[in-house]
Amino acid sequence: MNTKRIITWGSFIVIVGLIIWGMIAANNKAEREQAVVASPEEITEMDWVKGNATSTVILMEYSDFQCPACAIYFPLVERLFAESVGGFRFVYRHFPLSQHANAVPAAQATEVAGKQNKFWEMYEMIFTKQTDWENSKDAKTIFSGYAETLGLDMEKFVLDFDSKEIIDKINADQKSGLKVGVDSTPTFYLNGKKISPRDYEEFKKLINDAITTTDNS
Amino acid sequence: MKNLKNLLTTPLQLQIIPKWIIIMLVIAVLIGFADATYLTVEHYQNKIPPCTIGGCEIVLTGSYSQIIGIPVSLLGAIYYLFILIFLILYIDLKKEIFLRVPLIVSIFGLIASIWFSYLQIFVIKAFCPYCAVSAVTSLIIFISAFHIFSKNHAIQRL
Predict the structure, then answer these.
(1) What residues pair up with A184 in beta bridges, in sequence order?
(2) Average pLDDT estimate for A196-211
(3) Which residue, A66, A182, B3, B130, is most buried by CB atoms nearer than 10 A?
(4) Is the pTM of this model over 0.80?
(5) Is the pLDDT of residue B76 over 80?
(6) What pLDDT, on a 0 to 100 scale, did the predictor assign at position A34?
(7) Are A18 and B97 a contacting pair, CB within 8 Å?
(8) CA angle centred on B17, ends B90 and B35, rounded to 5°
(9) Is A12's CB within 8 Å of B88's CB?
(10) CA distance, residue B9 to nearest chain A CA (Å)
């Protein structure tokens, strides 16, 4: 047997094997390991916060209403409120991505509803009905319909929708995300540390562990 | 057309092919293979792809990301592996045919890359860096092939 031939084919098999193994490992690593990134700014009065107001455990989400993954995580967060031990505070920040044409109008709709104390109601409606408006050429009309359902003052809703105040708020959220390196949605921070739970159980464990640790300390 | 046929069917003069071009081909193919394998693994792990700045997930999960149920990334990985096997056969056996076949096949790789780049820019309007890497490697493979063929052709005509 020719040694050169063994080396040639041996290297071929080893290199191809290493590449496949490496790419599987790289995929798993990308999921598990969190890059060390700066913590996002702490809660301000501009933020939308819900949950247990006395809890020191803070879950912060940078999200895009038109992102399918964000809509998948929405019910998970809702379930966490019901099933976590002792509760936590949840902060929602806008991070609309440019490929989603209706993400900014959706964020506007929630902010405008927020001015009438219905932010979370609109937030829920927009996420649960994402498929109804995601490809619409006139999403604003659909959101107006939601506003009516929620019993908002429609005159005010229309007036506020494109106001500078609302646009500035969304931009400020996005800027705060960009500043700490948010580049995809949803991005979650648990007490300032980036987390990427892949399923509900993992999410729940992270939250419960944080609650237990904080209670004990 | 006849010229093109001559160009592709004329046996290659192996002695005129510089070693560096074969090394460059192998490196480009390995990069392309790693890239396509990464995306194939991601596809079959079936996780929820987050939405990213640029919109890579739209490219990788949209209707153009599969051909009759087979992810394009897997077809890419098979394409690169096919070319790699032929290159190794050529390095091992120094038979002209093992070099000519992958070089001809590289034209299809280039056409596919142009098609998917067009889709990304004009139809999907989203950008996926992984696909850009593959477009570059398939372009390198094609340029190397073109270089070998044209050099060979010029020598044949002397």
Answers:
(1) B52
(2) 90
(3) A66
(4) no
(5) yes
(6) 54
(7) no
(8) 60
(9) yes
(10) 28
Closest CA to A97 of A194, A185, A187, A195: A185
Name the residue type at position B30: L
Q: Report the pLDDT value the prediction gives residue B1, as an integer from 0 to 100.
A: 63
Is the pLDDT confidence value at B4 over 80? no
Chain segment A131-148, per-residue pLDDT in tens = 999 999 999 999 999 999
Sign of the Cα torsion A46, A50, A56, A59 reads negative
Cα A75 to Cα A78, A79, A124, A190, A197: the distances in Å are: 5, 6, 9, 18, 14
Tell me how long chain B is: 158
Amino acid found at A36: V
Q: What is the pLDDT of residues B125-140, one digit of tens each?
A: 888 889 999 999 999 9
Q: Which pLDDT tens digit goes with each residue over A12-46?
A: 999 999 999 999 888 877 665 555 556 777 888 88
Say which residues have a Cβ less than 8 Å from residue A172's Cβ, sequence separation at least 6. A46
Are B126 and B81 in contact, with CB atoms under 8 Å apart?
no
CB–CB contact A183 B53 (8 Å) = yes
Bridge partners, A185 (sequence order): B51
A21 part of contact set with chain B, CB < 8 Å: no
Task: Put the strands of the sheet holding A48-51 in their side by side order.
Answer: A48-51, A89-94, A58-63, A187-190, A193-195
Query: Closest by alpha carbon to B100, among B14, B3, B1?
Result: B14
The owner of tokens 């040639």 is A8
Whether the bond into A186 is cis, omega within 30 of 0: yes
Distance CA(A81)–CA(A50), nearest Å, equals 10
Q: Do A8 and B88 touch (CB under 8 A)?
A: yes
The one-character DSSP state at B120 is I
